[in-house]
């Protein structure tokens, strides 16, 4: 790991003042479960690391009539041990529960989960976010892409967004609180992520000198919600595909639906077509399957990952049934 | 001449009981020191610069910048310009520095230029392999396979395979080496060969064989990959010498461990089998290929176990790839050939519409000398998994997306004893020591030594001190091939018996008896069957005067104490989600013969470990090579997937014991139970979903692809 300066501010104002103008110059440290591996593997080589853990204002999980606030430093364990989350936001709870490593649950944070970097094995081996070899040849399309994107990869980013929390937050219409030199702002979770155009960019809508401070989830207000992850193992592993669903039922029929898929595209994937397919209908095996079909209608699997289309469909169907049930 | 045999069943005090491993507490508490944990005063850290290319010629190496980095103490070129590198990750330059950071910085500062050459890293698609990479083995024919197939009522042909896997030792390979003076080296390796690794190093260093002192208390896994000193071991000692003898710690990083420290060769096979309507097996034909890097892997024993199939035609090809070299992996070749054999026979039984258990038993005579053992074991395993109640014809796994199925397999192994010398010392104060240059791989070697000595001397277990892991102790074999338990228990039984006889001779006059009328039981020496004429162990040992008594016991070869040749049967119960292709193990049972069981508990944990490794390679594990870059894509424990405790299902083990088994003496156990899991689980999945998932690991993509071939309901949800 390259040598770096380590700073531990106690306020967000101090933290932001310590950040850089360009990505990679300064890195923010939360639980460190991802950042440390990135640095050990020389994927990022910051000259300074700014530790957020000394900023008390960024921690905590709080539920009230107006909704849920997850501090950026709230750990997976903090979220899992909160009974209000479990009761009102099963979509969030299930997504967090899927991270089965006790160590990551103890250290990993909400902000870190949203800002963690892609797990594409070419990226992690040093071939860059867009995974190109020294001749500029893109390695993913004709390489081993079994875990890569099946949707939204037109821009040339083939990795999948790794966050399991993000689809749940999108389904629940959460907002992400950001703080920077110009003060605080809020971004819809659905707008927070982006497919980067190269290594100088990131996969989320932050400037290099901004940090995530909190996540605000509206009161459930009768939104029934669920997450279904297709996981191969109980041991710590990435979902092969996941879906988070929030439904408002009017009588037996779906009045409103928000559906987002995880681990299928460079961004958490909002499935508008699936939402429309469901609205106005009662939730049954058939309508859930039809919505799942609609969600994946535009899928463009790569050479080795067509199976993920099926898995994503199953995730959507099962998440809808779980939310309604 | 003393008679060496194991005590009769009714006389056994410790032998065959459930005894916890004696080093368990220190391991659990973190007190046990592995090579990785050892830190020596003034120790330097070693690092290796590796080839990023799978096939390339080194054209130049410039280490000057690396040498200038502060803290760097030694830089050594391992393979110089002109060398042709055959796999990514191969060792090129070794560096030692005062801390890991400086070593890493220096490694990154080495400039190496390569001329890249074309590489081949995957062999699945046989048609794309150039002839130059193929090494065929001569065809082997038994009987008249062509005629047998033409006369068979039923034939099936299938394609089966298992990807390359690694050993994935949780403690990576490596060591700490230091020159204690100009001519002597102290080595703390992670090794399966305490008694021989020092000699290997001495030879490379051109110093006398006895000048390398090897010490190792604990090892974090070897599985067949840690018999050699290895290039990194030799270079570690070289770095130490260059740095004036300072200790150098050089342990492989996880990515290097998974790239260069050993793999199990893949297997790909086209197998055809034929039978008569009544289920009599008549013919076998196989064409197999696979890769283990640049080397070969011997002639595969196919058809596995069913050697008596009367008509056979077998072809085998080894594919040379630019990938890290193969090493012995727990029962070398057996798991692969077991898979292709048992899967083909299971497919044949499905085609015959026979229960595979009935089909196996009907043909069991074709397995040869151990037919009776297999039959008994199959019936026992069937009872444990309630086969007759739970089995259903292939594909009738129930309504709904979750299908349940059962599968079975049988396997064999040798496991005869290796050479072993044991020194047993009885001190005048009654203390007893066992000394041996062996190693405990986590298999329970220490525990077995203590049990055997205590049993023989009529003492409680904690009266025996066990000293191993040092090459200055009597020579004992490498722990490989399931040879250890037979070797070390025989030599210890003999040393203990001889020592006891000498002690009995000393005390006999005091008891007014002949030595051969005495026995050692319950911590006493007494006239056989007469506790009124005896003395305590301590009183007896005091008769030794001032001199301790040390006796060397030698493992004499196979005989009453140890022999070889075992059979085992395993059955698995799985559930498969046919919408996602995710396989879960519900229950997995193993029935194993290993002769006389010395410690039921550590023996059982060997089998559990083997079954867990089996679940790993059946469902999750594979080394993934990238065609274009020639590199391993998953040299980490994130995508090189192993099972967690929640993935292994309920496991049950039964040992075949008593007359016919115990009297064969001790037989090794480490390997046999690793052989069947792939076949048993593959057969269970086929039974559940109605179609064969040909290649292990049975990942969701492979399961869904198999279902799609069947054209079943899964094409869409
Ligand atoms: C084998 C494996 C399996 C895993 N499986 C899953 C899974 O199924 N689902 C899942 O969601 N995750 C999974 N994880 C990832 C894990 O959840 C993340 O490592 C963790 O959430 C990161 O949080 P952290 O606080 O440790 O982040 P850090 O490592 O501290 O930071 C990660 C990144 O986010 C940035 N960052 C952190 N906090 C902030 C902030 N407040 N503002 C701006 N930037 C910030 C850092 O600069 C860094 O780039 C898995 C990890 C592994 C190794």
Structural class of chain B comes to: alpha+beta
Structural class computed from helices and strand pairing of chain A: alpha+beta
CATH architecture of the largest domain in chain B: 2-Layer Sandwich
Q: Can you write the helix and strand succession of chain A as a string?
A: EHEHEEEHHHHHHHEEHEEEEEHHH
**In oligomeric terms, what are we looking at?**
heterodimer
Tell me which protein chains meet in the greatest interface and how many residues each side has: A-B, 38 and 34 residues
Task: Report the end-to-end length of chain B measured between terminal Cα atoms.
Answer: 75 Å
The CA-CA distance between the termini of chain A, in Å, is 49 Å
Average pLDDT figure of chain A: 97
Can you lay out the helices and strands and say which pair or pack?
The complex is a heterodimer of chains A (325) and B (717).
Chain A: E1 5-7, H1 12-17, E2 26-29, H2 35-40, E3 48-51, E4 61-64, E5 67-71, H3 76-80, H4 83-88, H5 90-97, H6 102-107, H7 110-115, H8 121-127, H9 165-171, E6 175-180, E7 183-188, H10 189-192, E8 211-218, E9 224-230, E10 241-250, E11 253-262, E12 269-270, H11 272-278, H12 285-295, H13 307-324
Parallel strand pairs in A: 1-3, 2-3
Antiparallel strand pairs in A: 4-5, 5-8, 6-7, 6-8, 9-10, 10-11, 11-12
Helix pairs in contact in A: 5-9, 11-12, 12-13
Chain B: H1 24-28, E1 44-50, E2 56-62, H2 64-68, E3 72-77, E4 84-85, E5 91-97, H3 100-109, E6 111-116, E7 134-142, H4 145-151, E8 154-162, E9 165-166, E10 174-181, E11 184-189, H5 194-205, E12 212-214, H6 230-242, E13 248-251, H7 254-260, E14 263-264, E15 267-275, E16 281-291, E17 311-319, H8 334-351, H9 356-362, H10 371-385, H11 387-390, E18 402-413, E19 421-426, E20 432-435, H12 445-457, E21 464-467, H13 484-507, E22 518-521, E23 524-527, E24 530-536, H14 537-542, E25 549-554, E26 566-577, E27 582-593, H15 600-620, E28 650-656, H16 677-689, E29 695-696, H17 700-710
Parallel strand pairs in B: 1-13, 8-29, 11-12, 16-17, 20-21, 27-28
Antiparallel strand pairs in B: 1-5, 2-4, 2-6, 3-5, 7-17, 8-15, 9-14, 10-11, 10-13, 15-16, 18-26, 19-20, 19-25, 22-23, 23-24, 26-27
Helix pairs in contact in B: 8-16, 12-13, 15-16
The structure holds flavin-adenine dinucleotide (FAD).
């Amino acid at each position: 790991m390259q040598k770096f300066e380590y700073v531990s501010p106690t306020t967000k104002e101090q933290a932001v003042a310590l950040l850089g103008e360009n990505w990679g110059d300064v890195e923010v440290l939360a639980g460190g479960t991802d950042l440390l591996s990135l640095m050990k593997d020389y994927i990022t080589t910051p000259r300074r690391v700014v530790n957020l853990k000394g900023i008390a204002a960024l921690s905590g999980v709080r539920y009230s009539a107006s909704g849920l606030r997850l501090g950026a430093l709230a750990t997976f364990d903090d979220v899992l041990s909160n009974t209000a989350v479990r009761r009102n936001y099963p979509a969030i709870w299930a997504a967090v529960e899927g991270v089965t490593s006790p160590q990551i649950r103890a250290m990993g944070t909400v902000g870190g989960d949203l800002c963690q970097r892609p797990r594409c094995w070419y990226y992690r081996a040093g071939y860059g976010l867009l995974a190109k070899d020294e001749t500029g040849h893109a390695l993913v399309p004709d390489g081993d892409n079994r875990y890569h994107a099946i949707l939204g990869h037109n821009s040339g980013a083939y990795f999948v967004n790794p966050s399991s929390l993000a689809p749940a937050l999108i389904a629940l219409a959460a907002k992400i609180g950001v703080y920077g030199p110009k003060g605080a702002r809020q971004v819809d979770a659905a707008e927070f992520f982006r497919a980067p155009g190269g290594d100088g960019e990131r996969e989320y809508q932050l400037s290099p000198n901004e940090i995530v401070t909190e996540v605000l989830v509206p009161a459930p207000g009768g939104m029934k919600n669920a997450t279904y992850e297709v996981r191969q193992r109980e041991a710590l592993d990435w979902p092969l595909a996941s879906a988070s669903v929030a439904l408002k039922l009017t009588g037996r029929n779906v009045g409103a639906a928000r559906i987002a898929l995880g681990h299928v595209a460079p961004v958490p994937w909002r499935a508008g077509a699936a939402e429309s397919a469901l609205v106005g209908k009662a939730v049954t095996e058939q309508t859930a399957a039809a919505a799942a079909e609609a969600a994946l209608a535009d899928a463009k699997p790569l050479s080795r990952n067509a199976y993920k289309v099926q898995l994503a469909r199953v995730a959507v169907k099962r998440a809808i049934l779980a939310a309604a049930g | 001449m003393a008679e060496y045999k194991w005590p009769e069943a009714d006389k056994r005090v410790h032998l065959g009981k459930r005894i916890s491993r004696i080093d368990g507490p220190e391991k659990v508490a973190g007190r046990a020191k592995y090579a990785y944990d050892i830190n020596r005063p003034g120790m330097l850290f070693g690092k290796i610069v590796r080839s990023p290319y799978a096939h390339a010629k080194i054209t130049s190496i410039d280490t000057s910048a690396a040498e200038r980095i502060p803290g760097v103490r030694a830089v050594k070129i391992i393979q110089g310009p002109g060398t042709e590198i055959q796999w990514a990750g191969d060792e090129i330059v070794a560096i030692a520095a005062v801390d890991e950071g400086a070593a890493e910085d220096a490694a990154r500062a080495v400039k190496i230029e390569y001329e890249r050459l074309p590489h081949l890293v995957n062999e699945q698609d046989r048609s794309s392999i150039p002839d130059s990479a193929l090494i065929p083995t001569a065809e082997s024919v038994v009987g008249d396979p062509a005629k047998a197939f033409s006369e068979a009522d039923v034939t099936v042909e299938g394609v089966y395979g298992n990807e390359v896997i690694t050993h994935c030792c949780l403690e990576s390979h490596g060591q700490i080496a230091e020159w204690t003076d100009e001519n002597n080296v102290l080595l703390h390796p992670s090794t399966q060969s305490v008694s021989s690794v020092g000699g290997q190093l001495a030879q490379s260093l051109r110093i006398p064989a006895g000048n390398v002192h090897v010490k190792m208390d604990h090892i974090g896994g070897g599985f067949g990959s840690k018999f050699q000193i290895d290039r990194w071991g030799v270079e570690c000692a070289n770095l130490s010498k260059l740095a004036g003898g300072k200790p150098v710690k050089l342990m492989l990083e996880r990515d290097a461990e998974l790239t260069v420290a050993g793999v199990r060769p893949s297997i790909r096979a086209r197998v055809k089998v034929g039978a008569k309507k009544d289920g009599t097996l008549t013919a076998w034909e196989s064409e197999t290929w696979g890769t283990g890097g640049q080397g070969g892997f011997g002639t595969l024993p196919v058809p596995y176990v069913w050697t008596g199939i009367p008509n056979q035609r077998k072809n085998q090809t080894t594919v040379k790839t630019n990938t890290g070299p193969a090493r012995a992996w727990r029962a070398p070749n057996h798991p692969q050939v077991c898979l292709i054999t048992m899967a083909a026979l299971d497919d044949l039984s499905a085609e015959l519409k026979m229960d595979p258990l009935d089909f196996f038993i009907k043909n069991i005579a074709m397995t040869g000398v151990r037919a009776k053992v297999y039959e008994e074991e199959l019936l026992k395993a069937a009872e444990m998994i309630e086969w007759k109640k739970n089995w259903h014809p292939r594909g009738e796994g129930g309504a709904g997306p979750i299908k349940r199925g059962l599968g079975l397999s049988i396997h064999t192994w040798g496991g005869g004893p290796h050479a072993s010398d044991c020194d047993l010392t009885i001190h005048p104060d009654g203390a007893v020591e066992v000394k041996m240059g062996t190693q405990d791989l986590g298999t329970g070697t220490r525990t077995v030594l203590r049990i055997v000595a205590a049993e023989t001397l009529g003492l409680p277990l904690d009266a025996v001190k066990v000293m191993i892991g040092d090459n200055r102790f009597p020579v004992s074999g490498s722990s490989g091939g399931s040879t250890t338990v037979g070797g070390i228990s025989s030599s210890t039984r003999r040393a203990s018996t001889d020592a006891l006889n000498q002690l009995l001779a000393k005390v006999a006059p005091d008891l007014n008896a002949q030595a051969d009328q005495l026995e050692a039981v319950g911590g006493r020496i007494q006239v056989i069957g007469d506790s009124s004429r005896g003395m305590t162990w301590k009183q007896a040992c005091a008769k030794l005067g001032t001199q301790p008594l040390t006796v060397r016991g030698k493992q004499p070869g196979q005989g009453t104490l140890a022999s070889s040749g075992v059979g085992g049967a395993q059955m698995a119960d799985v559930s498969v989600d046919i919408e996602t292709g995710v396989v879960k193990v519900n229950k997995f049972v193993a029935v194993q013969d290993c002769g006389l069981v010395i410690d039921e508990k550590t023996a059982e944990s060997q089998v559990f470990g083997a079954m867990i490794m089996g679940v790993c390679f059946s469902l999750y594990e594979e080394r993934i090579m990238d065609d274009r870059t020639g590199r391993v894509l998953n040299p980490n424990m994130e995508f090189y997937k192993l099972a967690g405790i929640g993935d292994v299902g309920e496991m049950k083990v039964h040992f075949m014991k008593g007359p016919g088994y115990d009297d064969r003496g001790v037989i090794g156990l480490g390997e046999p139970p690793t052989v069947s899991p792939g076949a048993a689980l593959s057969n269970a999945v086929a039974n559940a979903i109605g179609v064969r998932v040909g290649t292990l690991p049975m990942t969701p993509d492979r399961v869904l692809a198999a279902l799609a071939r069947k054209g079943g309901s899964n094409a869409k949800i």
